[in-house]
Amino acid sequence: MKHNTNAAEYLEPEPHPADSLTYDQVTRDVCAPLERVPGRGWWMAFSGALGLLTIGLISIYKLVTTGIGVWGLNNTIGWAYDITNFVFWIGIGHAGTLISAILFLFRQKWRTAINRSAEAMTIFAVMTAGLFPLLHTGRPWLAFWLFPYPNTRGSLWVNFRSPLLWDVFAVSTYFTISAVFWYIGLIPDIATVRDRARNKIRRVIYGALSMGWTGSMRNWMHYEMVYLILAGLSTPLVLSVHSIVSFDFAVSVIPGWHTTIFPPYFVAGAIFSGFAMVMTLLIIVRKVVHLEEYITVRHLENMCKIIMATGLMVGYAYASEFFIAWYSGSPYEQFTFVNRAFGPYAWAYWTMVSCNVFIPQVFWFKKMRTNLTIMFIISIFVNIGMWFERFVIIVTSLHRGFLPSEWSYFTPTIWDIGLLIGSFGIFFTLFLLFTRVLPMIAMAEIKSILPFKRKGGVEYGTHEDVV
Amino acid sequence: MSTKLTYWKTLEQKDRTEEAIAAENREFFVLPKENDEADQSQPVERRDFLKLLGMGAAMTAIAACARRPVEKIIPYLNKPEEITFGVPNWYASTCNECPAACGTLVKTREGRPIKMEGNPNHPVSKGGLCARGQASMVNLYDPDRLRGPVTMKRKAGAGESIEWGAVDSIIGTALDQISDGRGNVRVLMSTTTSPATKAAVQQFASAFRGGEVVWFDPISYENVIAAQELSYGTAVLPRYRFNKADYILSFGSDFLGTQISPVEFTKGFAAKRALDGKKPSMSRFTAIESVPSTTGDNADRRIPVKPGDELAVAAAIAHTLIIQQGHGAADAAVRSFLSSYDAKTVAASTGVDAKVIATVASELWANRGRGIVIGGQAAPGNTQALALELVVNLLNSALGNDGAMIDGTARPSNQALGSYAAALNLITEMMNGSVDLLLIRGVNPAYVFAANDLFAKASAKVPLIISFNDRLDETSEFVDYVCPDHHALESWGDAEPQRGVFSIQQPTISPLFNTRAFQESLLMWAQKSKCSAGALETYNNWYDFLRGYWQKTIYPTTGVNAPSFNAFWDSVLRDGVIVANHNDNGSSRSFRSSGFSTLPAASLNNSTDMYLTLYTPMGLYDGRHANNAWLQELPDPVTKITWDNYVSIAPATAKTLGLNKGDIIKVDTGSTQLEAPIHILPGMHPQGLAIAVGYGRTKSGKVGNGVGVNAFALAAINAKAANWTGIATKIQKTGSNMMLACTQGHQTMEGRPIVKEATFEEFAKNPHAGNEEHHHLITMWDKHKYPGHKWGMAINLNTCTGCSACVIACQAENNIPTVGKDQVARDRVMHWMRIDRYYKGDEANPEVVNQPMLCQHCDNAPCETVCPVIATAHSDEGLNQQIYNRCVGTRYCANNCPYKARKFNFLTYDSAANPEAPLHLMLNPEVTVRTRGVMEKCTFCVQRIEEKKSWAKDRGIALPDGELKTACQQSCPADAIVFGDANNPDSKLAKLMKNPRGYNLLAELNTAPAVTYLTKIRNV
Amino acid sequence: MSSNLNTKGVIGIFDDPETVISAAQKARKNGWRKFDVYTPFPVHGLSEAIGIPRSKIPWVTFLAGLAGGSFGFMLQAWTSAVDWPINIGGKPFVSWPAFIPVTFELTILIAGLSTAAALFVTCGLPKLNEKPMALSLTDDEFGLFVPATEVGFNRDAVTQFLKEANANEVRDVQE
Known about the structure:
With 1020 residues, chain B is of the alpha/beta class.
C-alpha cells in the first residue's frame, strides 16, 4: 500500500515527530499533563481564562435580565457583535474537522500531531458559537421553539425556509458529528490513560469514558472503518455548515448580503480563521505542555502555507464582490461596496483587508514560516481580521440599506464588548481544562506512524514495508 | 303560615316569636337600601329589590372597569345608554387641544375613552384630526395632573390639598369683599370657541365693577385681526378657503401645520392637489418664509428670506402688481407705502430674485379671484407683522380674492381671540396694583412671560390669584389656589369654531380625579357670594347652564325643525355638530387704505446681522403638550428631531461659523440670553435663526420638565406687543455640545427611485411621468391566491404634507410605546408609521418630499421567509401578520425588510407594558401590548378590519368600500391614505392601484407590496 | 481440550508489531480462527494476518443516511404543506429548494450517529466489566490471545507456539 500520493510529494518531506520517539515514550509524554499537578503557567492561563469567563457571565446576566437593548443595536442594525461572534466562532470551529477529516482522507499523516487539539478546538468553538444564536434572541428562554418538536399548541411547526432554521440543523449536526468523531478518536487513548491510572477514581472515570476498549484487533478493524466513514461524512458536513451560515446572508435581499459567492467565500474564510486559531493555540500549548517533539515547526510551517493559500482565496473573494457589484448594474449593490471601502466603516474594512490579505503575504518567505514569534503575531492578526470580516459583512450591509431615511450607525456598548471577551473566556476555559483531562495528542495515531520498533529498541522498519 | 311546622331552623322560629313569623311572611330577606339612612329600617319591596339587583349588577360591572359620567350622554353610532362589553361606544365631541376645535368622535371601551378620531360630519375639520388632537388621550390620563384643589403658599413651593368646600367658602368670602368695595376682577383666559363658556365667563366678570375677561394665547393672530379691522372695519379672523384656491401665496404662514385651523386648511389644500379628477388640475403654491415649515415643505416654490423680510417681499409683489402694472385701485396711502418697495430695491436688499417677484405677481394676477395670499406665522403684533397683514389684505382685495377665497363675513373664524396687547396691559395693571382678583384658565403666564420674571413680579401685587390649570405649573407658584379644571373629555362644553357652526363637547368619562369644571367653579362662586352674576345664578350646575344656553341662544338660531328642544339636543349629542348658517359664501369687502398711514415709514433692512424668529412646533404647540410623551417623541415634520428644541441655522452659516450639529450656542437678543443646541437646517436663510417655543417647561410634569429651553423668553416684549420674528440676534459658540435625538440620519434619496416625482407640466402631457420605469419580474413560483378580501393601501405623495397626524393616530390605536430621548437617539423609536423626509437639490433651498412609511404587507415578504419560527406569515387576505406570542426575537425579519418597517422591543418600554396609572386606561384592549424581545410592526389595523368584517356580517352585506378605515387613514387631514380591498374592482383602492401615478416601492425586489404610492407632482 | 476449566485462554505478549504479525500469520496457518491480537494502535496488515473479514458498517451508514435524508425531506414537506400549510413569503408550501439544507444535514446526522452506534454494537461496547489482559497492551506491547474455545485448543501447545513465535511472555488468562 503506497501512501505517498502525488500531492504529498509536492509538499516538502512530511513533518514528522522526532525519530527517536518510542511507543512508551509517546504514552508517557502525552499522558504526562494529565498525571501531574498543573504548573504555574497553566494556572495563570486558567485563571486568566476564568476572569474572561466571569466577564462573559456577567454580560450574559445583564443581557438576559435587561434585554437586547443593553447592546448597541437598533431598528436598522438588528445584528452586529452577536452574529459576528457567532460566525467568527463557527469559522474557528472549522479547522478542527477540516484537519481531522479532510487531511485524513488525503492521507496527510502530519495531521496526527495536531488533529486532537484541533478537534477539541472545534467542539469548544462550536459550543461558544452556539451561545450567540441563543443569546441574540429577544427571548432566549423561548429559543427551543426553533426546534421542530411535536407540541400541544396545535399544528405549530417551524419555518424550514428560514436560513436560521438551517443554521439550527447545520450547527447542531456539526456539533454532534464533530463530538462523535472526536470521542471515537479518543476512545483508545482514554483506554491507555485508564490502564496507567494509579488510583481507583481515575480508573473508574477513564474506564467508563473508554467504554472498556481493549484494543482487540477485531475491534480495531471496525473502528478504522468507522473512523474513515465519519471522516467521509464530516468532509461534506464541514463544507455545508459554513455554506449554510453564509446563507443567513446570501438568501436575504439586503445589498452586500445577497451574493452567490458567499458559500465558498465563507468556507475559505472559515478554514483560514480556523487554522489561524489552531496555530495561536498550538504555539502556546506545545510550549506549555512540552510537546515540541510532536508538534514540530514543520507542522506549523505547513499550516502557514494553508493560511496563506486561504488568505489569498479570501482576498480573491473580496475583489470579486466588487467586480460583481459593478457588473450587476444594481445601484444598491454598487453603493454598498463603495460604502464598505470608503463609508463610515472604512476603518473596519481596511482593518479586515490588511489583516486577512496583506499581512499573511509574509508567509511567502520560509524564514517567516519557521519563525514562531512571527507566526504567532500573524495568527493573531488573522483572527482579528476574520472577526472584522464578519463585522464588515453584517454591519456595513445593514447600516446602509435600501431606504436612506433609516440609515444608521452601530456603536458597541460595554455589554457587546463584554460578551465578545466572555466568549474567549468560555473557549479558553474549556480548552485549558481539556489539556488537563484528555490526551492532547492522538497517541494511537502517532504510534501508528512511528517506525516499528521495540521499547527503546532497534528500528525494524516501518509497518508499510511489512504490508 | 302553615301550622304544621315540624322542623325548625332557629330557636326564634321554634318559639314562634312575632318577628320570626313576620320574617317568614316576607318573600325575601331585608336588604338595606344603599346610602339611605332614613330608609334603613324599612324593608325593600320586591320590585325595588329587583331593580337594585339589576342596577347593582350593572353598576358593579361598570364600576369595575368603567367610569361613566353622571349626565345622560348619547353615543354617536350605537344605541344609546348601554355599554356592550367588547364593543366600543363612540361619542361625538369636540377637540380641545388647541382653539381650532375640530369635531371628534371619541371611542370609548367599557367607559374609558381610548381614541379620538375626526368627525366626518363636522363641516370644519371634515373627519381629520391632527397629531395634537390624537394625542389628547395622554393629556387626559396624565398622572401628573392635579388630584384635587390645592392651596398654594406663594413662593413656598408645594401647596397643600384642600377640600372643594373650603375653597368655595374662602373664595366666596373673598368675592364678597371685592364686590362690596373696590374690586377689579380679571379673568385671564386662552381662546375658547365655546359660546356657553364665553357667556358664563362674561357674566361672572360683569358681576364686578370693572370685571374683565382678558383673552390671551401665546400663539396669537392678533396682527391678522388688527389688520382686518384696519382694512375692512371689522375685527375678524377670516376663514381661508383653501379648498377653492388655485393659487396660494404664503408669507411665513404655517397653515398646514400649526396656524389657526390646520386640519381644515390641510383638507382644503389637499383637495386641490389630489389629482383625482378626470382633467389634471392642481393648485400652485408659493411659500416665502424664514423658517422651513411643514407648509413651506409642501410648496411648489419655496423662497427663503431672512426673518422680517417677508414684508418687503410682499410689498414688492404688491408694488409690481398695483403700482407697476396698475392692477387694482391704489390711493395715495397705498402708493406712498409701496413706493419704497419696488422690486429691484427689494431684490437687492433681500436677495430674492426680482424675476421671481415678477413671476409671482403675474401668477397672482392670472389666478385673481381664485387665489389666497396668507400672511404671518403666528407672529404676535408688531408693526412689521401688522404691515405684512395689511399688504396681504391689500393684495387679496386688489386681486378680488377677498370674499370668494377669504371669508370675513359669512362664516369667519372664532379660533383665535387672544392678544398679547391685552395680556401685557393686564400685566401693567397688575404692576400698578389695580387688580384685586385674577383668575387664570388655560394659560401659563409665568412660563410665557418668563423673561425678566415679568409675570412673577406682577403677581406679587395681586392679593388673590386663582388658577384653574390642571397641574402645578410654572404659574401656580404665584397663585393662591389651584382649582383644577376637568380635561375636555371629562366635561361638558360646546364650540363655535366658525360663525354658525356649533358643536358639542360631551364628557366621555367621569372625572378621574377630584377636579371640577372651570365653569362649574365660577357658577358655585357666583352663587356662594353676594355678587350677582346674571344667569349664572339661576342654574344648578354647569351642565344645566350649557343646556339652557343652547335652548335659549343657539336653538332658535339654527332653524332646525325639531319637535322639541329635547329632540334637538339629542340629535346634537348624537351628531356632535349643527350648522346654523348654511350660506358660507363670503362677500368681498371694500378695502380701506387708511391702515397704511398708521405705519411708521417703511425701511428696508440691509444689515448683515443674524435675525431670529420663533415658531410654533407641530407637537408641543405653545407648551401645553410638554408633558405629552407622544408629542415629545413625535419627530418634528421638518427636522425629524424629538425631545428637544434647538436653534436652526443655515448650512452655509454653520460652515462659516464652524458649528456642528448639537453645538450649544449662546443666543443674545440684547435683552435676553439663552443657550441652546443648533440644528443645521437646509432651507434656512443664511442670516436666519429659528427656535421653537413650547419647550423648556420646568413644571409640566415628569415627562416634560427640562426638555429643551424656553424660547418665549426670547420674544422681544414691550408694553404693547411681543415680537417673535426678525429679532436682531448675536450668537456665540460655547464650546459644549449636546446630542439631539433625530429619527432620520440621512436626508437625501441618493438618487434612488424612492419618491418618484414629476412636474405638473410633464404630468399633464403624460400621466405616467416620473413613473415610466417598470421592472420585468420573473419568479419560480405561482402566486398564492387571495379569494376573499385582499387588503391594500394607496398613499398619495402629492397630498401628504408630512403633518404626522397619522403617526400619532397609529400610536394611539396600536398601543405603541414611547421610548424616550436616549432610545430615540439609538434609533429605536417604535412608531409603526413614520414619515420619511428627503431633500433634493441645493441645500440652501432644497426641494422636500415626505413619504409615509409603514409595513408594505408584501405578498412576497422577505421578512416572512427568514423567520425561523413562523412568527410572521401571510394571511389569506394579504396581510403580513406578526404573531407576538410566537416571536423569539431574532430580528432577522427586520434585517431583511427593505423598508425597515419593523420595530423591535429592545427593552421593556414602560409606557405601554407597565404604564403609570392612570395611563394604562388609555390602552386599546383590541391590541396586544408587546413585551420586550418581540418584533412589532404595522398590522393594517387588523383589529379594525375584523371589527368591520363582523359589522358587515351581522348585517348580511358585503363590506362597502370606504366603511373600513385604518387609524392613519382616518386621521389624515389630507386624505392622502386610502385603504381598501384590491379584489373589489369598484373600490377606490383598486382604481388607485391602476392609476398611472401608482408605483410599488422597490418593486424590482419582487416583494410585491400591498402599498401603492402615487407620484409626487410639483406645479412649478 | 482444556486441562483447566477456569482458563479463558493463553496470551503471548510481544514487543513489536512485526513479530506479532508473523505470529498471527502462523496461528492462522495452524487453522486457528478465534484468536485475537490486542494492540495499542491499529497495526496495518494484522487484520489480514488474522483473517478478519471486511467490516459491514458502511452499509449501515448508507441505509441510515438514506433514511435520515428521506425523513428530513418528508418532515419538512409534511409540516409545511400538509399539517400546517401557511403562506410564508408567497412561497409554495413545498418550496423544495429551501428544504435541501435540512435534508442534507439530517442525512449526515442520522448516518453519522448510526455509524457510531454500529461501531458500539459490533464491538460490544461498552464492556465495562472486562479486565484488561495486560495493562501494557494499550501502551507499547502487543498481545496474541488464543481463547480456550479456539479450534483444537491445547494449553501447552499454544504456550509452546507462542514462545516459539518470540513472545516475551506467555501466560494463562483466568476467567
